């Protein structure tokens, strides 16, 4: 895989993929261009050699070496055959082109080719064809072709101007480079376009996921047909949105429960302060007010500790035991019911214990008792008893009871039977009581058969 230094890599995925594609295409184009031009140059060189071979063969046909000496026969196309052709008898020059002087560079190279051939192979022996290139403003290739293999041996040297061949090779090289540049530019542009189009759904999905997670939307990506990769991304985003939605719900639930539970002790503090400010108080009355405020503040601290622990650990179970009857009596006093309302707390045994700490027992029973105070007409009965699988607390009031059509929604957060009944509340108390009880292994349920009024039953593990 091609990697680039981080300081040279583009910042976007589209830019990086486009650059990788461009780099890969460039390497491929370089290899293909070099290979193609090497083949073309080899082919042109072969064509030049074939031209020289044909020319030397045609001239060799006019050279007679059968006798004691070498003799050049005259032919009708003698001028064509003599063009850029040298004929030697041994190492002695017999004929040369009229355009090449005896002391010229081409004639000198031709002489050297013939002499080198005789020096290496000797006269009367089989000699091989030899060629040499002369570079300059006009490159020329010379080839020496032996004629005959006895004492009257001759050599024909032909020259070929390579300028046309070199020009053709250079033109092909320039065309190849220009074509490569155009193809690389098109490759880069098309890659950016294709990658941009391919990543466009990813950007749209990311924007939607961000928007949906901010508002806690229930919309998801799973219902839309997408390619396999985008479907997997959609599934991952859906899972992330589900977790975000759960966190938001949990946050809203915790905020609502805290405000719901803190409202009662806060109301006690406000009432005590209003009463204390209404007229001058004696030191004893001021001290009593301070005690009530301090007790309400401790209650708020306990509420926060209990609910925050449940939110943090996912379990509200606090190891310990609580004496049920004294805790219920203290809670009945702290809730400060109206003067006309009587709360009766009874228990089979005064030392009946639940397997939870008093603070958690108060948080479970408090919403039920608060609802009973809110709707009861004259009296409320709170009874504690032991059962085979734990302990049970009944909260019964003589109010109007729960409407039959609302029973199935009774423990759903934020639901109230009649929001306009003149009583405060956010519909969070009963769901909180059931959730905390279940976290301890207990339960809270409504007795639908009880009438008149309402009856709620709390079961908890025994202490």
CATH architecture title of the largest domain: 2-Layer Sandwich
How far apart the termini lie comes to 66 Å
Low-confidence stretches: none
CATH topology of the largest domain: Heat Shock Protein 90
CATH superfamily label of the largest domain: Histidine kinase-like ATPase, C-terminal domain
Q: What percentage of residues falls in helices of 4 or more residues?
A: 40-55%
Question: Which percent range describes the beta-strand content?
Answer: 15-25%
State the strand order across the main sheet: 4-3-7-6-5
Number of self-contained structural domains: 4
Sheet of most strands: 5 strands, antiparallel
Order of helices and strands: HEEHEEHEEEHHHEHEEHEEHEE
Category by helix and strand content: alpha+beta
Average pLDDT over all residues? 80
Coarse morphology: rod-shaped
Please report the first level of CATH classification, the CATH class of the largest domain. Answer: Alpha Beta
Model description:
This protein is an alpha+beta fold and 463 residues long. It has four domains: 1-57 and 165-215, no CATH class; 61-161, 2-Layer Sandwich (Beta-Lactamase); 221-314, Helix Hairpins (Orthogonal Bundle), CATH 1.10.287; 319-463, Heat Shock Protein 90, CATH 3.30.565. It contains nine helices and 14 strands. The strands form four sheets. Strands 4-3-7-6-5 form a five-stranded antiparallel sheet, sandwiched between helices. Strands 9-11-12-14-13 form a five-stranded mixed sheet. A two-stranded antiparallel sheet has the order 1-2. A hairpin with a 6-residue loop joins strand 1 (63-64) and strand 2 (71-72). Helix 7 crosses helix 8. The longest helix is centred in the middle third of the chain and has 53 residues, at 163-215.
